[in-house]
């Protein structure tokens, strides 16, 4: 199937999750929104809507006169719904992030009826229709509207004592193998997130067989590799970090620790002399990061990320740690601090006298990746439709540019050599069909450097990840969150040479159909190359109760190569090839 231009699919409901609350959730908006509330129907809430999947223990805030009274049982029930369904967008403290602020000065102005209807029907700007989609009952909606008229509850902090209470070394370092004890090609293992099973499956990239499945954190999210390639660090949304030893006869979890109530990111020290020494995890709640001993996960140093926003320089009590990147130039990590819009450089060479450098970038930073040289870091401020570029050699912001589309969502992005513009870093967009190419080479392509040099159209909105490989002549663009099943279950592939044209064609790979699965949305998510760069793996992501799979495509011929199916492959999403993750190949 060839298409010149994708169907333009504005991506209202899901883009919601990442649409910025631009400060004040004003009365004007409320008035405008009210008539649209009724009759606005959207599909089931998609899996991308952020959620606090594990409810932190919270105290009921003091009820003020004039606020609807909630019994302790009602408060507990409402709190659970809020943390599971709402806090990811609106923030734990309800100050707004990707969703509108819901502090009582605002909710009281909006009033009970407006809140009730808004929760019920959702909004075209992205609030899910919790009532009409059948996910919340009318009683629950009534409860949530009353809950929002009360002061927010603050979940507790999570300091060293709490962490130490959860820290377990399952196999002490001196009882671990001193050499590799198996025959697996450890450079070509895929650590596959089985999201709703709270497990990762390690799949041998050569035989395509499941080596083992390991219990990890709840709603497990990403895997990262130690610099030596021996250990995999996995983080769950419940902030549990699991350390997997690939040298064991059958790779196993050798240590674990819970570093907060909610987290999304983990990484390792990669600078010369610090290989495998430290790990770092970034929390959503409490807003902080934790530096751990690499081989045991013993928490060593916790740093709060609360502080001032980069723009108005107002205090932000909830500034979540989104993506983390390890520098090759210095013993440093770069952290995207979401709500503050700060790229934080953390120098790990001296944990006692920790050096932090705050780079003011753009608010609502989320994911991102390096250019192919590893020098320039591209961080997506998705709710601001912007990309902040940091020079990790000089530790300075290069610039912030508009991404060219709505809600950039690169994952790590993709690096290709553009036939006209030289080395470029690529991002797709959650909110529309735009794929943007940004020049990355100020030496040989100074005119193009750090500018969007081209935008092309893919299949539609709902893209999460783009991917290429130095050995590939293709660029893959997924669209798992597009509401149309025909787009969500397929992937667009551009021939890089065709980008020389103004309107390059792309091929559509029917991955969902190739999987042989006929049920469900068959969302195709996260292209990932094998070590050799000649195969691309795609997850066919269905609901927990349905069959899912991994489909492997031959990168040269774009033909189906293999389908990996197993009853245990429950909701596979991210797949982290050990070599490519370790060496930042994307
Ligand atoms: Fe992710 C990366 C946060 C939902 C799959 N996701 C990231 C990163 C962040 C993030 C901050 C970058 C980490 C890094 O590089 O250090 N993700 C969030 C959320 O806050 C969000 C929107 C909502 C939530 O409640 O968690 C969210 N993410 C999802 C999903 O629903 C996905 C599609 C399926 C899943 O397994 O949860 C998903 N996120 C991924 C993947 C990556 C990722 C596969 C890593 C991409 C890579 O190539 O490195």
Describe the structure.
With 586 residues, this protein is an alpha+beta fold. The chain has ten helices and 36 strands. The strands form nine sheets. A five-stranded antiparallel beta sheet has the order 1-31-30-29-28, with no helix packed on it. The longest helix is centred in the N-terminal third of the chain and has 19 residues, at 72-90. It is globular. The two termini are 26 Å apart. The site of heme D has 24 residues, from strand 6, strand 10, strand 16, strand 20 and strand 32.
For this entry, give a set of tags.
alpha+beta; 10 helices; 14% helix; disordered N terminus; five-stranded antiparallel sheet; 586 residues; binds heme D; 36 strands
The number of helical runs is 10
Q: What's the alpha carbon Rg, rounded to whole Å? A: 23 Å
**Attached small molecules:** heme D
Number of strands: 36
Q: Would you tell me the overall average pLDDT?
A: 89
Distance between the termini: 26 Å
The SS-based structural class is: alpha+beta
Percent of residues in helices: 10-25%
For the biggest β-sheet, the strand order reads 1-31-30-29-28
Q: Major sheet: size, sense and barrel closure?
A: 5 strands, antiparallel
Strand content: 25-35%
**What overall form do the CA principal axes indicate?**
globular
Low-confidence residue ranges: 1-50
């Amino acid at each position: 199937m060839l298409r010149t231009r994708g169907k333009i699919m504005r991506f209202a409901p899901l883009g919601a999750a990442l649409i910025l609350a631009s400060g004040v959730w004003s009365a004007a908006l409320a008035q405008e929104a009210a008539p649209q509330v009724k009759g606005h129907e959207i599909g089931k809430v998609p899996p991308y809507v952020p959620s606090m999947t594990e409810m932190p223990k919270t105290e009921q805030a003091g009820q003020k006169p004039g606020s609807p009274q909630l019994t302790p049982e009602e408060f507990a029930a409402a709190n659970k719904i809020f943390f599971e369904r709402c806090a990811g967008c609106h923030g734990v403290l309800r100050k707004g992030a990707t969703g509108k602020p819901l502090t009582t000065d605002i909710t009281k102005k909006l009033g009970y009826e407006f809140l009730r209807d808004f929760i019920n029907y959702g909004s075209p700007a992205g609030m899910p229709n919790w009532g009409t989609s059948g996910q919340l009952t009318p009683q629950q909606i009534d409860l949530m509207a009353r809950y929002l008229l009360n002061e927010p509850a603050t979940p507790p902090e999570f300091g060293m004592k709490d962490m130490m209470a959860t820290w377990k070394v399952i196999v002490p370092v001196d009882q671990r193998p001193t050499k590799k004890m198996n025959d697996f090609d450890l450079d070509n293992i895929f650590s596959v997130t089985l999201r709703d099973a709270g497990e990762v499956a390690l799949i041998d990239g050569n035989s395509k067989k499941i080596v083992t499945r390991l219990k990890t954190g709840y709603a497990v999210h990403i895997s990262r590799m130690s610099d030596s390639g021996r250990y995999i660090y996995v983080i769950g949304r419940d902030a549990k970090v699991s350390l997997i030893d690939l040298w064991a006869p059958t790779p196993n979890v050798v240590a674990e620790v819970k570093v907060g109530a909610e987290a999304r990111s983990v990484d390792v020290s990669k600078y010369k002399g610090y290989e495998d020494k430290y790990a770092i995890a970034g929390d959503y709640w409490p807003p902080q990061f934790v530096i751990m001993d690499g081989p045991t996960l013993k928490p060593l140093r916790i740093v709060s990320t609360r502080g001032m926003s980069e723009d108005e320089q107002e205090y932000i009590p909830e500034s979540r740690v989104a993506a983390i990147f390890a520098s090759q130039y210095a013993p440093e990590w770069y952290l995207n601090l979401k709500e503050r819009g700060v790229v934080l450089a953390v120098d790990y060479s001296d944990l006692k006298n920790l050096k932090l450098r705050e780079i003011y970038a753009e608010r609502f930073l989320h994911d991102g990746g390096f250019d192919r040289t590893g020098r320039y870091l591209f961080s997506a401020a998705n709710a601001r439709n912007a990309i902040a570029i940091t020079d990790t050699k000089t530790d300075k912001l290069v610039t912030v540019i508009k991404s060219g589309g709505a809600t950039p969502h690169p994952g790590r992005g993709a690096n290709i050599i553009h036939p006209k513009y030289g080395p470029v870093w690529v991002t797709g967009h959650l909110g529309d069909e735009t794929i943007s190419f940004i020049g990355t080479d100020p030496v040989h392509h100074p005119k193009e450097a750090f500018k969007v040099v081209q935008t092309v159209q893919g299949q539609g909105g709902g893209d999460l990840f783009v991917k290429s490989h130095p050995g590939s002549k293709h660029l893959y663009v997924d669209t798992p969150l597009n509401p149309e099943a025909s787009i969500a279950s397929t992937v667009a592939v551009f021939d890089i040479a065709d980008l020389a044209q103004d309107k390059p064609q792309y091929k559509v790979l029917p991955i969902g159909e190739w999987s042989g699965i006929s049920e469900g949305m068959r969302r195709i998510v996260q292209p990932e190359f094998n070590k050799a760069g000649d195969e691309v793996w795609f997850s066919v992501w269905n609901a927990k109760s349905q069959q899912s799979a991994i489909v492997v495509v031959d990168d040269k011929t774009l033909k189906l190569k293999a389908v990996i199916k197993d009853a245990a492959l429950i909701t596979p999403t991210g797949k982290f090839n050990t070599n490519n993750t370790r060496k930042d190949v994307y």
